[in-house]
What we know:
- By secondary structure, the chain is mainly α.
- It has helices at residues 3-23, 31-55, 57-60, 65-92, 101-119.
Amino acid sequence: xxxxxxxxxxxxxxxxxxxxxxxxxxxxxxxxxxxxxxxxxxxxxxxxxxxxxxxxxxxxxxxxxxxxxxxxxxxxxxxxxxxxxxxxxxxxxxxxxxxxxxxxxxxxxxxxxxxxxxxxxxxx
Length: 124
């Protein structure tokens, strides 16, 4: 899988969603929903940058392709579940969607911890 291209696309999507929230939703969301949306955009950006960064580790010999793929997959799942649920919560106001958010957070944590562990191991 071309994680570099996916990371670049997910970053472009973060810019688009952030701009949509700042302009199209400006007058439609209350302060709480705006904060939730901004949190979603911030975590979307941070972890998409991480995904792009990790995608280059095999090219510099810091991580195997397989291991980088697992980390990228966890970061992508985190973006979809964490930021995606917060986007949906902010726009819809359905608070039950917030129950999905921690699952995305666990994906983020697992991805970063796995990366930390594997970066301390011999490359295989």
